[in-house]
Write a structure and sequence with these properties.
This protein is elongated. The chain is α+β, with helices and mostly antiparallel strands. It has helices spanning 6-43, 48-89, 100-113, 146-151, 154-169, 172-198, 210-257, 260-270, 281-286, 305-316; strands at 92-93, 119-123, 130-133, 141-145, 347-348, 351-352, 378-381, 384-387. The chain has a four-stranded mixed sheet with strand order 1-2-4-3, with helices on both faces. Strands 5-6 form a two-stranded antiparallel ribbon. It has a domain at 6-90 and 170-316.
Length: 388
C-alpha cells in the first residue's frame, strides 16, 4: 500500500477479483461435468475411461442450459436481492427528518467527493454493524444498526459510512453480490446431487460384471470428489473476495475522511459486537465486521480487527487505543422530574427542551432603554423647522 498507492492497489484488486469471478463461472461448468459423470456412472455399464469421455459430451450438451440457468438466477437476484435482504434484516429507508444526524453525515461525505448518494436504511438492533448493498446507482444503499448510531460518535460514524461508500465506489458490492449468487448456484447443485445419490433418487443398474461395477464406482468417486472440490473452492474464492476488500475499504474511508484514528476507534468499538441474529451468512459477509468464525479462521469472511487496525496504524499513521468499551448513555442533560406531576421533561434532538409557559417570554433578551438626552432648539429651514 505504501509503495504503490491506494488507487494502484484498487486497480490490482479489481483485476484479481475479475479473475476470481471467472474462476467461479468455471466451477459452475465443473459441477455440470461432475453431475454428468455421476449420471453416467449410475446408469451405464462401461469402464471409467469411456464414462469420462461420455461425460464430456453430456457436459457440452448441458452447458447452454447451465449458462441460461445461472443467468436467470443472477437476474432474479439482481431484481429482488435488496428486498430479500431487507426482509431478513428488517431494514427500512430513513430520510433527513427521521435520522437527521446520520443523513447529514452521509450527505456531506457524498457532496464532498461528488458521489451519488445511496439510500440510507436503519435496522432496529442494539448490535453495532453496517453494510452496503445494490447492483447499480439506483439500487445502492447503506444500512446501519441503531446500536451503531447510539454507540459511536459523529467522527466514527462518518468513518463507517466512508468504509461502506468505498465498497460502492470500488464496485465491491456488485461483485460480492454476484459472487454470492454464483456460489449459491454451486451449493444448490451440490446439495441436489447429494440428495439424489444418498436419498434414493438414483439406483445402480443391474446385470453388471464386477469389473464394470468397479469402473462405475471409480467414476462415481471421481464425480463426487469434483463436486466437493468445486463447492470448497467456491467458498474459498468468495471469502478471498470479501477479505481483500476490507483492507482497501478501511483505507478508502481514511482517504475520504482524513481521520485514521476515527476509523480505528470505530473498529475497536464494533469488534465483537456486530452479530445480527436474523441475518444469513451471505448478509454477514457484506457487513463491516463479521464476528462469526470458521474452522481455525480458515472460513472467516473478514480479517481480524487487530490486523485491520495494525494496517491502518502502519500505513495511515493512526493510533491504536486497544479494545474499547461502549460509552454509557449520557443522562446528565436530562431535566429533573416534575415535583408535582412526577413526569419527566420531554427531550428533543439536542437534549431536553422546556415546555412553553402560559405567558411565554420573548426569544430575544430585553434591551435597556435608550436615553435621547435633552431636546435641541429647532431652526427654520426652506421646508420647515429642523434640528441643528
Amino acid at each position: 500500500m505504501a509503495a504503490y498507492g491506494l488507487y494502484t492497489h484498487i486497480q490490482a484488486n479489481k483485476r484479481r477479483s475479475i479473475v476470481l469471478l471467472i474462476g467461479l463461472f468455471f466451477l459452475v461448468y465443473l459441477m455440470v461435468y461432475a453431475g454428468a459423470l455421476a449420471a453416467e456412472a449410475l446408469s451405464s455399464d462401461a469402464p471409467p475411461g469411456l464414462l469420462l469421455r461420455r461425460a464430456v459430451l453430456d457436459a457440452v450438451r448441458a452447458a447452454p442450459f447451465a449458462t441460461l440457468g445461472t443467468a436467470v438466477w443472477i437476474w432474479i437476484a439482481y431484481k429482488f436481492h435488496q428486498g430479500m435482504i431487507d426482509a431478513v434484516t428488517g431494514g427500512r429507508i430513513v430520510n433527513r427528518q427521521e435520522a437527521p444526524r446520520l443523513y447529514n453525515l452521509l450527505e456531506n461525505l457524498c457532496i464532498s467527493r461528488g458521489i451519488t448518494m445511496p439510500k440510507l436504511k436503519l435496522i432496529d438492533d442494539a448490535n453495532l454493524n453496517a453494510f452496503a448493498t445494490g447492483m447499480n446507482d439506483r439500487q445502492y444503499s447503506i444500512t446501519v444498526t441503531s446500536g451503531l448510531v447510539e454507540g459511536l460518535d459523529d467522527a466514527e460514524i462518518e468513518s463507517v459510512l466512508g468504509h461502506e461508500l468505498t465498497h460502492i465506489r470500488n464496485g465491491d458490492v456488485r461483485l460480492l453480490v454476484i459472487a454470492v449468487i454464483i456460489a449459491g448456484v454451486i451449493s444448490f447443485f451440490a446439495e441436489l446431487v447429494y440428495r439424489l445419490l444418498f436419498q434414493g433418487g438414483w439406483r445402480w443398474s443391474g446385470g453388471r460384471s464386477s469389473s464394470d461395477r468397479r469402473g462405475s464406482s471409480l467414476a462415481l468417486l471421481i464425480a463426487l470428489a469434483m463436486i466437493a472440490v468445486a463447492w470448497l473452492l467456491s467458498i474459498v474464492i468468495r471469502l478471498a473476495l470479501s477479505r481483500r476488500r476490507e483492507y482497501l475499504a478501511d483505507a478508502g474511508s481514511v482517504e475520504l475522511t482524513k481521520n485514521p484514528d476515527a476509523m480505528i476507534s470505530a473498529l475497536r468499538k464494533i469488534e465483537g459486537r456486530g452479530e445480527l441474529a436474523g441475518a444469513t451468512s451471505a448478509v454477514m459477509e457484506m457487513c463491516i465486521d463479521n464476528p462469526r468464525e470458521g474452522f481455525s479462521n480458515i472460513f472467516d469472511t473478514h480479517p481480524p480487527v487487530g490486523d485491520r487496525v495494525a494496517a491502518l496504524v502502519r500505513f495511515a499513521g493512526g493510533h491504536d487505543p486497544g479494545p474499547l468499551a461502549l460509552p454509557e448513555p449520557d443522562t446528565s442533560l436530562r431535566l429533573p422530574e416534575n415535583e408535582t406531576s412526577g413526569e419527566v421533561a420531554p427531550t428533543g434532538p439536542w437534549g431536553p427542551r422546556q415546555e412553553a409557559a402560559e405567558n411565554p417570554k420573548p426569544f430575544l433578551p430585553s434591551r435597556p432603554p435608550v436615553e435621547l438626552g435633552p431636546a435641541e432648539p429647532e431652526e427654520p429651514g426652506p421646508w420647515g423647522p429642523h434640528r441643528s
